[in-house]
Write a structure and sequence with these properties.
This protein is mainly alpha-helical and 249 residues long. It is 82% helix and 0% strand. Helix 4 runs parallel beside helix 6 and helix 4 (46-73) packs antiparallel against helix 10. The longest helix is centred in the middle third of the chain and has 32 residues, at 140-171. It is globular, with a radius of gyration of 17 Å. Keywords: Membrane, Transmembrane, Transmembrane helix. The chain crosses the membrane at residues 47-70, 77-96, 102-122, 138-159, 165-184, 196-215, 221-241.
Length: 249
């Protein structure tokens, strides 16, 4: 729990000090799901991890619904309404995806198509900046650490009871995105926070590919190597996006 909390808090603090694009790159790294999967791999075999990754791919694809609802709402409305609507959209999309039980190939292609489309749709929202440098109330860091530590404890405790697919879903809950909304929108404003999510569309493709890699490689390569490869894919994808963005500018 402490390890997971420390990773997320450290990366979140970096995200707060950067622009929307860099913040999106950091927020879409496996900084929450990664430690949870490490703990799951200590308790379960590679087949469990491979099946769990399919559940995580559905949860990641449901993030598209969260972003689709949040980004336009945040231009006009407050944190409570925007976050509530976004979380409800995430749950609705997740339940639909779990009911459909899409195969791996369909999930992967849908992830690329949906987030690629969102990237084009969100371009006009991606450049907003906060009007001033916000202060940070003392309670935000322990609150964020508590969110992630609780997630790690719940998933590892319930994994045996709920099975691999729902363990993967729980591991991929949008803790980082929702906690950033809850803690940053009141301080930097809705448009600036929406810019972070608008810039996260393409990085979430890499996140989905990283999870897909874990699904494919956990059994033949073993969980440790599969998780390491997934992390490398996610980091490499985001670094490539940053390089392309700088080249375009």
């Amino acid at each position: 729990m402490a390890t997971a909390a420390a990773v997320v808090v450290g990366c979140s603090l970096l995200a707060e000090r950067s622009g929307p694009m860099i913040a999106a790159m950091i927020a879409t790294l496996p900084i929450s799901i990664g430690p949870v999967y490490v703990f799951l791999a200590l308790d379960h075999d590679a087949a469990f991890i491979a099946q769990g990754a399919l559940g995580s791919m559905s949860a990641n694809l449901a993030n598209a619904a969260l972003c689709f609802v949040y980004v336009p709402l945040a231009q006009r409305f407050g944190t409570v309404l925007c976050l509530s609507a976004a979380v409800l959209a995430w749950f609705a999309a997740l339940l639909l995806l779990r009911a459909l039980e899409l195969p791996f190939a369909v999930l992967l292609v849908t992830t690329v198509v949906v987030y690629g489309s969102l990237h084009g749709l969100f371009r006009r929202y991606s450049g907003a900046r906060p009007s001033h440098q916000p202060s940070r109330p003392w309670y935000l860091i322990p609150m964020r650490a508590g969110f992630v530590a609780t997630l790690a404890a719940v998933v590892t405790t319930l994994s045996t009871q709920v099975g691999p697919a729902w363990s993967g879903v729980l591991a991929a809950l949008p803790v980082v995105l929702t906690s950033m909304i809850a803690m940053l929108q009141p301080r930097i404003g809705g448009p600036a926070m929406a810019a972070v999510l608008a810039n996260s569309a393409l990085p979430l493709i890499g996140f989905g590919m990283a999870i897909g890699s874990v699904h494919l490689n956990a059994v033949p390569l073993g969980s440790p190597l599969a998780l390491t490869l997934g992390l490398a894919i996610s980091v490499g994808w985001n670094l490539a996006l940053m390089r392309l963005s700088r080249g375009a500018r």
